[in-house]
Write a structure and sequence with these properties.
It contains 18 helices and 21 strands. α2 runs antiparallel to α3 and α12 packs across α13. The two termini are about 50 Å apart.
Length: about 575
């Protein structure tokens, strides 16, 4: 076992026009903090002492690492910052010598959310520094103190985010140790690391055969063979067309993504089975030779898959690391910048995945007809309702025969009751009493995904325990549970509240019943105001730390009740029940 490297969270603030920079650090293990202000010698002292550490930061690869490297190389960090932000020059083009400075980096990021949004979800203070980053002079003592507070706050928030997603670091560390890799591999994304482990290398020519994929021979279709024929018709392989067909009584879309099929506003109880294919896409790659052609030794991928299954049964935590390699391989096939890029294979995996599931659906329909219901089909699984326990046994026998023929392995959840809005939004109770939910309205929230939590809770309480929406919301007095995240995207210059211009890009707002409060608007580039979607007509803003705060009298709970009822209606037909009905039967 290698000696564990130190993990240091780091963040820079640079006022390029004021010739000022500062750096804040926090050690993950000891939680010791250190602040450096315009002192390159001190930075080098700390860096040289910790140069073999893992440097952790939010979007560290795009900005902070280049400021670090500039200081190490003796370049002016203010000049580098200006080129990165003001001139929008790619980092590796600024000074190529910076590329040769080794750093161990672990990047925290979210494709859709900024650090400020995550801070909002956590209930933290999201107010920004009042010191402008284009300040044309050296900052005053007071301004430096404010910048220090701001920078240190961001480091502490990054530390908190790191704690929440530490499992990702653990998984990557596990891969590096398991395969005996250099820890510079921390600098790779999951997909890049997977390509490296598999020894993938893009050819020095471009392939032009994306439409030349084949349908695997194991697929046996009769009633729905027309769907297979649609895929086999080269006229349909422009990747813009799609086919909508009625499959076992459900409108189903076939195209170039995963299977999407579900009964809308569905309710069901007893003898329901959800069947997911274990490691579906990786298994298709292995069994039907559809792994990226850039991999020199495809057997290694199979070995990783089989080892992962073994470790999973043994509850060995390394299985989560190996899962990274398996799950990254499909997406990397469609990423032109990845060494696994092989568009033909990626499309073939997806198309054959849909047809394999269609094959299973057809076999169930042939056996049961109207004695069963097809509830939903998704990227890697299907769900059916049967009339008896004996029918469930027959279904499992069909699954066993399908698995033997297709070489795909199924895992089954036995469900007592389900309420489904569509394929991406549902909640159900398993036979063991545990609850699974999916979709924006009922998903399990976390500290890093915590928008309108009271509405989510109210809907789930109604569906699961038959608690009235009004009861859940009216009994809640925690302000944080009512927070709504507002984000001003790059299409808009700023937010407007009443007559006030707000420069913040992320705001925490709450519904208000005070007549003196206004709506929140956003200013378009043409000077026109536009109301921000899904916000009340009157709001108040609280960007301070709201953890533990109680609601003020002016909070308008009726708005949250209305939102929750609207969302609930999208789940339930007129003759609906709730999952509470099931618990009453016990």
């Amino acid at each position: 076992m290698k000696k564990e490297r130190r993990r240091i969270i780091i963040d820079f603030e640079v006022l390029s026009k004021g010739n000022f920079w500062m750096c804040c650090m926090k050690d993950y293990k000891s939680e010791a903090e250190h602040i450096i202000i315009n002192d390159r010698e001190e930075f080098l002292r700390v860096f040289n002492k910790n140069k073999n550490s893992i440097w952790v930061g939010y979007n560290i690869k795009g900005y902070d690492q280049w400021i670090m490297k500039a200081l190490i190389a003796g370049l002016d960090p203010c000049v580098i910052s200006d080129k990165l932000i003001e001139e929008n020059i790619s980092p590796w083009q600024i000074d190529r010598s910076l590329n040769n400075i080794p750093l161990y980096l672990f990047e925290l990021n979210d494709s859709y959310r900024s650090l400020k949004e995550l801070e909002l979800f956590m209930g933290e203070d999201i107010r920004e520094s009042s010191v402008p980053f284009d300040l044309p002079r050296y900052p005053t003592k007071e301004e430096i103190e404010e910048l220090t507070t701001y920078c240190l706050h961001d480091v502490r928030m990054t530390f908190k985010v790191f704690q929440e997603v530490y499992y990702k670091y653990d998984a990557q560390q596990g891969l590096i140790e398991y395969f005996g890799l250099d820890e510079s591999m921390f600098n790779k994304t999951e997909a890049q690391l997977s390509a490296y482990i598999l020894g993938a290398k893009k050819p020095n020519y471009s392939r032009d055969d994306a439409a030349d994929f084949e349908i695997v021979h194991a697929i046996e279709l009769d009633k729905y063979n027309n769907i297979k024929l649609w895929y086999e018709d080269y006229n349909n392989r422009d990747f813009k067309k799609y086919l909508r067909a009625n499959v076992y009584g459900v409108d189903t879309d076939f195209g170039w993504g995963g299977l999407h099929s579900a009964r809308k506003k569905y309710k069901g109880e007893d003898f329901i089975v959800n069947s997911d294919v274990s490691s579906f896409y990786p298994s298709i790659m292995i069994e039907y030779n559809l792994l990226s052609r850039n991999v020199q030794n495809p057997y290694k991928f199979k070995e990783i898959r089989d080892t992962r299954f073994k470790f999973k049964k043994e509850k060995n935590p390394i299985e989560k690391s190996l899962k990274l390699v398996l799950n990254s391989a499909y997406g990397a096939c469609l990423d032109v910048n990845n060494d696994l890029y092989d568009q033909r294979q990626g499309i073939a995996i997806c198309v054959n995945g849909q047809l394999l599931l269609l094959d299973l659906i057809e076999k169930v329909e042939m056996e049961f007809g109207d004695r069963a219901e097809f509830i939903q089909g998704n990227t890697d699984g299907v769900m059916f309702k049967f009339k008896s326990e004996e029918d469930v046994k027959k279904y499992l026998h069909i699954c066993e025969k399908w698995s033997q023929r297709t070489k795909m392995e199924l895992e089954h959840d036995f469900i007592k009751k389900i309420i489904q809005k569509d394929v991406n939004n549902y909640i159900y109770v398993k036979e063991d009493g545990s609850i699974k939910s999916k979709g924006a309205y009922v998903k399990k929230l976390s500290l890093l995904d915590n928008d309108l939590p009271i509405v989510n809770k109210a809907i789930k309480e109604k569906l699961v325990n038959d608690v009235e929406i009004e009861t859940t919301i009216n009994n809640c007095n925690k302000l944080m549970d009512f927070q709504k995240c507002v984000k001003i995207t790059g299409k808009y210059s700023h937010a407007v509240y009443g007559q006030d211009k707000i420069k913040l890009k992320v705001l925490r707002v709450f519904a208000s019943k005070s007549s003196s409060d206004k709506s929140i608007m956003k200013m378009k580039s043409d000077g026109k105001l536009e109301k921000i979607s899904y916000t009340p007509d009157r709001i108040f803003i609280d960007n301070s730390n709201v953890q533990g705060k109680e609601i003020p009298d002016k909070l308008d709970k009726s708005w949250y009740i209305s939102i929750a009822k609207d969302r609930l209606e999208s789940f339930t037909p007129d003759d609906s029940f709730t999952l509470f009905d099931y618990f009453n039967e016990l």
